Amino acid sequence: DLHGVLATASARGEKLPVVLRRLLRRAVRVFATDAGTFFMVDPESGDLSFAVVEGPARGKLEGRTLPAGEGIAGWVARHGRAQLVRDARRDPRWKSTLAREVGFATRDILAVPIRAGRGQVLGVLELLNKRTHPGFDEKDLRQLQALTASLGAMVENLRLWQQARRSNARLQLLNQVGQLINSTLDAAEVRRRTIEAAKQLVDAEAGSLILLGPRRERLYFEVALGKRAERLKSISLKPGEGLAGWVVSHGRSVVVNDVRADPRWSRRVDRRSGATTRNLVCVPVRNRGRTVGAIQALNKRQGHFDSDDRRALELLAGQVAVAMENAGLYDRLQQTFLESCQALASAIELRDAYTGGHSRRVTRYSLQVGRLLGMDEQQLENLRITAILHDIGKLGVDDRVLRKPGKLDAEEFAQMMRHPQLGESMLAAVEQLAAIRPGIRAHHERVDGRGYPDGLRGQRIPLAARIIAVADTYDAMTSDRPYRRGLPARVAINEIRRCAGSQFDGGVVRAFLDAYRAGEVTGRRERLPPLRRGGGRAPAGGSLGAGGRSRGRHRR
Amino acid sequence: DLHGVLATASARGEKLPVVLRRLLRRAVRVFATDAGTFFMVDPESGDLSFAVVEGPARGKLEGRTLPAGEGIAGWVARHGRAQLVRDARRDPRWKSTLAREVGFATRDILAVPIRAGRGQVLGVLELLNKRTHPGFDEKDLRQLQALTASLGAMVENLRLWQQARRSNARLQLLNQVGQLINSTLDAAEVRRRTIEAAKQLVDAEAGSLILLGPRRERLYFEVALGKRAERLKSISLKPGEGLAGWVVSHGRSVVVNDVRADPRWSRRVDRRSGATTRNLVCVPVRNRGRTVGAIQALNKRQGHFDSDDRRALELLAGQVAVAMENAGLYDRLQQTFLESCQALASAIELRDAYTGGHSRRVTRYSLQVGRLLGMDEQQLENLRITAILHDIGKLGVDDRVLRKPGKLDAEEFAQMMRHPQLGESMLAAVEQLAAIRPGIRAHHERVDGRGYPDGLRGQRIPLAARIIAVADTYDAMTSDRPYRRGLPARVAINEIRRCAGSQFDGGVVRAFLDAYRAGEVTGRRERLPPLRRGGGRAPAGGSLGAGGRSRGRHRR
């Protein structure tokens, strides 16, 4: 019983082609025929595809198309009437060319239309060459008609159910990717995950997130993973240019399955990237009612993009807009925090005898060294704040000490030496900055234990403090003061080298020298011999060392 | 054809009971019977429910239950075999009591089992009293069997499809609510939206979000909307107490459809809230692998909670964890920002002759006034930052001026007067603080236009600056200095009153006096006559005014 096959299969969640093949095999066996075909009718063109073929020509026929109305099956599909053909070769509708091509000698044919619940023909079931004499008769025709009477409705039902299952699976995936996209407040990570999600959701080869520039004057391919990700990353479009531009300008989605036939398509992106776009789906990303960009998926791995793909990306776009908004808010708040700290630090150093920009430069040098030492994002973030705020304790040092052009006397130097501790205690009320306080306290420690306030040695000094000590000293030596010019970079760098292992951490100095050579310190590449491992062990009390130090940070 | 009915119905998306009724009506008509019943078999108990009844007893029977194995239908369901009963009254299986009760005279019966694809009996189709003589025969039985052969599989198929559709609708809703929950970084708003979403998602009368306290020592009903929201809000549980406690302790979901029968259930919450919980579904909320709380939905509006409800809430919990994490991160960063600004402002004022805590108090008074004046959250946030940072420009004022105990000479006063502008320009690099800079610049303006630096009048002075001017003056007057004690609050407040309309904005002073009366300024409630509208018009150069001002802010 064919209905049982269908019902069982759908209960098992089998795919339609699998079910249709089982049905066809059953029919071929029950009616004892040489071959059979299940044609599916394209609802738009009316063309018939050889969806499932049983028999010797299966390999040659399956997947091929019979134009609308052609052959016996085409006639059955068009007229919606079953046919019994006792000798195909004498039937004027018979496509003998196809039969010859595949080398199958057709004798008699039974073909019945498969109708959906609403009556329209979904497909045709055709059986060929009944093995027993004298071939198909009217009784066979009635039997096949009875058996397939409600098949179409069931096939449609199964198709609907499977559609619902696919939609379900996709919504579940969307939930997952939405959660993943939203579970970071890092804007770049949001964009990366968006593209990955878009590709996965609609099974595409590549994806891009296209964002309007801040003044809405250009469209930027912000991320574009896939094979040619890097190239696409740099491409920008005029508003309205290309399909993505059209989507952003009109705030409407598009599904284009032959981009070359679409007048809105711009070849420029493909030319620039060397990619070949066949088809795409592109949906607008809106934030607070305003289109801010688009998500695009390119080249469906199998078949064509359809309206389900479009809807899935539209739902994704809603999630992405939220995640981008959150990441943007977090990012702006973080910027505000860092810039405010920097602004206050800059204001604070105006009191000092420095020429300004000190904490900004120390921060820059420190981050370069931190990166070369392989610090992770969180460590770099803490290093940044520590470097920005390292001297805030100077708020507790009197003007007359801070600004004294000559050497400091003992009392003045004692006051100056308190600034690392003062800085640490000023931030005591900020719970979230607990991690940076040790670095501020220790930025005047020396690896030989002769620094202050705690006389820590080597690795017991927080790495951030060891880094800042180098950056701070280098900047202090090379900066102009009202009463003297700064040292040349080369002299300062040699002084830093010399004090590796005594005042400074050797590994930090090596990284600083690497940054110097790479031009990250002075803005131009420099040649410099490498630092010996364990080098610079000379006592820090030596002439240049003391001189450098006195010229550099705090004059005693 | 019964299959056609089913297939068409499912294609139309009709609900199962509607479809079954149409099927039964068709069968009753085709076989010309007095009545018919479609029994559904409960998969767990084996009981049969009169799911759909056609005939005179419909009203009395529909919805009733036949215990497992009872009656002809019970026998058919249990044995899975069709039965033809020519005279029901002589059949020992016949439930005559039920027939008498409903007043239906049964003669002959045709009953066939409806099997699912996997063979198990889903239901029984029973037809009663064939109208034509001599009643049902074997041919009718075979015909009904043939017609219903794959009905069970189709019913199951339809049920699966409808399940998929329901699941689809729910996933779509989940997407929407997930997006809504994630589209705020305000933790309280996240919690509120979570509860709303939980209620909506599983169609419950009430919901709560239960969160573990920071030391994991108590469970707090953080939000609990529904009729008794306010009462529930204050209830806390011990870890492991009640069903919610069990869920949090075990990290596992529960569906309880009769809470009174569950030993884990704690009546305490109901007693405290005056609510009556019938049934609930409760799922854990996890963040980074750790259970941090639970989402609970109470009292399903129709029927019972099921595993679909549980799964929906579990998916919601994933979204909520992400949203709570994001809101928490944002909140902590905002705290870090504000506390850092406050720490630096406090450090800066250490240089000053103040006794400390000045900017913190000014911030507190200003926010109280801002709230009384009806400022929204964003305005209050800006006011807070403006108040914290209002004096940072003093970084540009020399120690000797700042700390001078006596009156300032002209040059010194000129330097002091530059601090509002200096403060404004120090923050120029912080793009996001653009909104607060005018308030910092203007906090020494006077509504009569005699302030500095710009001599702005009345409403042209930003409201934040008008508020801070009052708070700043009051705090300066009442604070001790190294060289003098602060004025009593009462004296200072009268001075503020007197300068309303000249130095200060009348509306701001009124709000400040309200805050003072309410005890928000001094910590104790104060009696104070109201300020006349337009009062305090006396020129600010008067004796006490000048005295107050000179004692208060900057001494000339």
Can you offer a commentary on this structure?
Two copies of one chain form a homodimer. The first copy, chain A, is an alpha+beta fold and about 550 residues long. Chain A has three domains: about 1-160, GAF domain (Beta-Lactamase, 2-Layer Sandwich), CATH 3.30.450; about 185-325, Beta-Lactamase (2-Layer Sandwich), CATH 3.30.450; about 350-550, Orthogonal Bundle (Hypothetical protein af1432), CATH 1.10.3210. The first copy, chain A, has 22 helices and twelve strands. Chain A has helices at about 1-10, 15-30, 60, 70-80, 95-100, 140-150, 150-180, 185-200, 230-235, 240-250, 270-275, 305-350, 360-370, 375-390, 400, 410-415, 420-425, 435-440, 465-480, 490-500, 505-515, 545-550, and strands at about 35-40, 50-55, 65, 85, 110-115, 120-130, 205-210, 220-225, 235, 255, 280-285, 290-300. In chain A, the strands form two sheets. A six-stranded antiparallel β-sheet of chain A has the order 3-2-1-6-5-4, with helices on both faces. In chain A, strands 9-8-7-12-11-10 form a six-stranded antiparallel β-sheet, with helices on both faces. In chain A, a hairpin with a 6-residue loop joins strand 7 (about 205-210) and strand 8. The interface between A and B is large, with 75 and 76 residues.
